[in-house]
Write a structure and sequence with these properties.
The chain is an alpha+beta fold. The protein is built from two helices and five strands. It has one domain: Nucleic acid-binding proteins (OB fold (Dihydrolipoamide Acetyltransferase, E2P), Beta Barrel).
């Protein structure tokens, strides 16, 4: 995650790389970065199966840690590369909605 996101809410999609304990797992992002996911209190990593695609929402704690996170699992046939292409297209089309006015 870029430094500009530290302390801010972010959403990441990737595949579960390893489950560390009930409240933490590591995620491999589509750009091959490893991110430590620290789950919000009351959220359990039981559904975070290794190799499973997940969407994680939380606060960027540092460049490789997402804290106070919650997650949603995707079906086995979820295509992360197609998802990334869709996001690039969307951000290109909607750039005027997120950039500050001059």
């Amino acid at each position: 995650m870029a430094k500009q996101w530290i302390g801010k809410p972010v959403t990441l999609v990737g595949k579960v790389d390893k489950v560390i304990n009930q409240s933490e797992f590591s995620l491999r992002s589509s750009d091959d970065q490893e991110v430590l996911v620290q789950l919000a209190k009351g959220t359990d990593s039981a559904q975070a199966n290794i190799g499973k695609a997940v969407e994680v929402r939380g606060i960027a704690k540092d460049a490789s840690t997402l804290a106070s996170a919650q997650f949603t699992t995707y079906e086995a046939d979820f295509d992360i590369q197609s998802y990334e292409q869709m996001l690039e297209y969307y951000h290109g089309m909607c750039r005027h909605l997120t950039e500050p006015a001059h």
